[in-house]
Design a protein that fits this description.
single chain, 346 residues, alpha/beta, 2 domains, six-stranded mixed sheet, five-stranded parallel sheet, 17 helices, 18% strand
Amino acid sequence: MSAEKTAAEIVQAYDGRPIRVMEVCGTHTHAIFEHGIRNMLPDNIQLISGPGCPVCVTETGFIDEAVWLALEKNVTITTFGDLVRIPGTEMSLAGARAKGAKIRIVYSPLDAVNYASDHPETNVVFLSVGFETTVPAACLAVKRAMELGIRNFSLLTANKTMDRAYRVLKGSADAFLYPGHVSAVTGMKIYEELKNEGISGVVCGFTAGEILTALAMIVKKIGSGEPFAENAYTRVVTEEGMPIGRKLIEEIMEPCEAAWRGIGVIEGSGLKLREKYAACDARLVYDMPEIQGRPNPACRCGDVLMGRIKPYECPLFGKVCTTEHPVGACMVSSEGTCSAYYKYNI
């Protein structure tokens, strides 16, 4: 009997109290739909989607800052593609591009550094959004730019770390499916710390078998009533994680408060450049004023990200808000919960 079937049988045979399991990774959200995992679960196991998509949790004000840099300071914005259509207060980056802004899609922060090096007459800003998985690449880009004396490159940061978010979300779910990619960097230490604070979860991979195995581990542990921290993705995630990546982050960046869409401000959950690297901090380089974004009041992305509602409970979903014409960030991003529900016609 295969491990996958054994895990499926354990999950399907669960007859205990109702439990809520929150995945906090957009790739998990889409993989769960793609593999039909929800259809395999008994009624007493509910999967809910949390704030695991970095583009989705980025506040409206960050998009407004990027638009301000593009239109008011005439910089070239370099970014991953998902951010281009995220709505700002007045417009998205796509809207700014229609007004003449220079928006360039790149595949890594180092691409942005290389572009700045090749175009010394152009001021280049990279939009640094993401969790622990992508932060080392942004730090490496800053280090490279400083070493090469590239003075026309900077970052606009909205990087976040997940551990503080789990603490805020405590009580929203009985257990978390911890994200495999982030955990490959952090290792298991943070989950042991969370366990000691009464927060349970299992590090999860992305295949059907890995997801079912993680759910089976939760089902077997939940009955004890004791918090737990387990690793169901051992082929990638180790106890120590990626020390070199974490050391690079600690060298270049430091913790700060960060605003999360749907959650609000979480102290210490953000990352900003240390003073030593202020020459690459776009907010300082361009003397940016404080910009407060105003999200569309009809959009309920925040409630979706907190697991309070399903996407189809938002009155805009599938009507005004579609992947072709998104109103909210969760419909734009390829990792967004709303885009997953829309894609799989839920």
